[in-house]
Amino acid sequence: MTDKTALKLWLQLAKTSADLHTRINTRFRADYGQSLVRFDVLSQLARADDYTLSVGALSAALIASSGNITRLLDRMQNEGMLERRPAPHDRRSTMIIMTPTGLKLFERMAHDHACWIAEILGDIPIKQQGKMVDNLHAIQRALSKAPSP
């Protein structure tokens, strides 16, 4: 019989990640009427040059599952958070640009998000948090080396 530590680790990571996602998503919905996925979209655009990414690059960069990215972007555009423009180098490609309205919303959400995370994880000593980050990086490296399905 094989050691089940890796399976236990995976189960705990999955449960913890789902719990964190639910808590933060609930706070975004209650405080801003937005979802974690929308915050993720704005966050990716905020870090991009000129607050602009192609749809493909944005979709690939998202942390949370985006489901139907086209419908999500449609709704965010209708609410004034972003604009779409044809890519200058490839008219078949579309660029997503965060608007000033989207940036203002993101800045407020990002501040609160940082506070919520600090509140949730604040009882874990900083040194232990650093070790956890290192361990998660090790898991990410292992994933990158594992054969794809």
Q: Nutshell version of this structure?
A:
With about 150 residues, the protein is mainly α. The protein contains 6 helices and 3 strands. It has helices spanning about 5-30, 35-45, 55-60, 70-80, 100-120, 125-145; strands at about 50-55, 80-85, 95-100.
Walk me through the structure.
The protein is mostly helical and 149 residues long. It has a single domain, classed as Winged helix-like DNA-binding domain superfamily/Winged helix DNA-binding domain (Arc Repressor Mutant, subunit A, Orthogonal Bundle). Helix content is 66%, strand content 9%. It has six helices and three strands, in the order ααβααββαα. A three-stranded antiparallel β-sheet has the order 1-3-2. α2 packs across α5.
Keywords for this structure?
149 residues, Arc Repressor Mutant, subunit A, three-stranded antiparallel β-sheet, 3 strands, 66% helix
